[in-house]
Amino acid sequence: NSLFCILRVVKFRRTGESSRSDEDVISGEHEIQIEGVRTELEPVELEDGAAVPKEFANPTDDTFMVEDAVEAIGFGKFQWKLSVITGLAWASNYAMEMMILSILAPQLHCEWRLPSWQVALLTSVVFVGMMSSSTLWGNISDQYGRKTGLKISVLWTLYYGILSGFAPVYSWILVLRGLVGFGIGGVPQSVTLYAEFLPMKARAKCILLIEVFWAIGTVFEVLLAVLVMPTLGWRWLLILSALPLLLFAVLCFWLPESARYDVLSGNQEKAIATLKRIATENGAPMPLGKLIISRQEDRGKMRDLFTPHFRWTTLLLWFIWFSNAFSYYGLVLLTTEFFQAGDVCSISSRRKEVQAKCSLTCEYLTEEDYTDLLWTTLSEFPGVLVTLWIIDRIGRKKTMALSFIVFSFCSLLLFLCVGRNVLTVLLFIARAFISGGFQAAYVYTPEVYPTATRALGLGTCSGMARVGALITPFIAQVMLESSVYLTLVVYSGCCLLAAVASCFLPIETKGRGLQESSHREWGQEMVGKGSHSPGVTRSNSGSQE
Q: In which residue ranges is the amino acid composition biased (Polar residues) (predicted)?
């Protein structure tokens, strides 16, 4: 006897895009005729631990992947909550702690009578900590979960951030700020967790809007410094700046573990529970069928970033992230130098005057200085808006390339002896686009790597960015003393090469779902072959997907 089942379902493409045919939209239903009796078969395990999706073993079973469920559930209340919590991590654990560097350094320079090289070391040691830990946090997140790595890094930063306020001497604060940097290196994993819960159409926009929280964090830090520094001093500023991390640490207990990670680690029940929770909060139905198991024991290994499929992507991304941080932080340093000199052509004469002064000469930050810091921060908003508008139109690769080209062009225009107003416009345009390019890289990197190596891939890229941040003071400050034009050529040339590297990236992730594992491509091929399996027919035309 034949059993005919008529089911109302949503058709899924295994690339992660969910869609309905035109006939589905009109009729509101999709008919599948299945001949034979449904049987429940357990997934077949491969030798390397990966599971064969059930539709390959039994084409009559209804199955779905995490990507399918995320697309079907869509963007809703759960994602709004997650956006706020991720933004809080970005503002408190990243933006505020980084903004402290520009406030703490001149204060200690005057209070402890530090020479210039020791003041510079206060900034460098934070980047050393971030660089040394980024890969480690990525490995922890791939091995033990995104939520686990994020919680440990936040608590680490909170603990040593508060201890920094009690540092008795320079050597102590140097060590403690380095340990704070070690914890900050885990913050990018919040983007990994965030991206894995976002449907494809909302992913780029949501990750880009995290930059708004960066701006909020830096503005809050400056306002806090205005209130605290004149009365309580820098020690209380460090302690109070760490307290928002306590709020995020408490909210971390609300965060679920990534369903993609749970599936890859074999926790099918936990992944289903997480997806049901999201569906309930969003008021959306779960997909029909069973969740495909795609277990992979060997996760978070550095060698996976250099397989033939990802080798060039990894190397090009490392250079792109290096160039982003090298240019972004270099521009921040150059902005101060150019504004103090008045214009580019006055740098040389000003340097001669400065060399005649004692290296211990210092000036406390004034209200005007804090105002300049606020304006510099607000200049990044246009970059976010432009990137937000173009990234889903021209793609991730072209967006990054365009950002680098505009930055390079503005750098070359600084060769002209322009006035203060034109100088300000050029610097703001350059910073807007280089910050937008940085956010485009944050969108592209989690999308291009599969779940098994996503956190490690983002972590290593973040580590390469810190290398660029470490090197850039020697260009923007030391080389600037010798030649302004050579300094500008270095930054312009680096960004031109990064633009070329962006164009040569082998994978464009626009319109593509997040890849579950390295076995995904094999699965896609099998789905295509299974489309002609006997016993399965559709009432409307179309391939079996």
A: 534-545
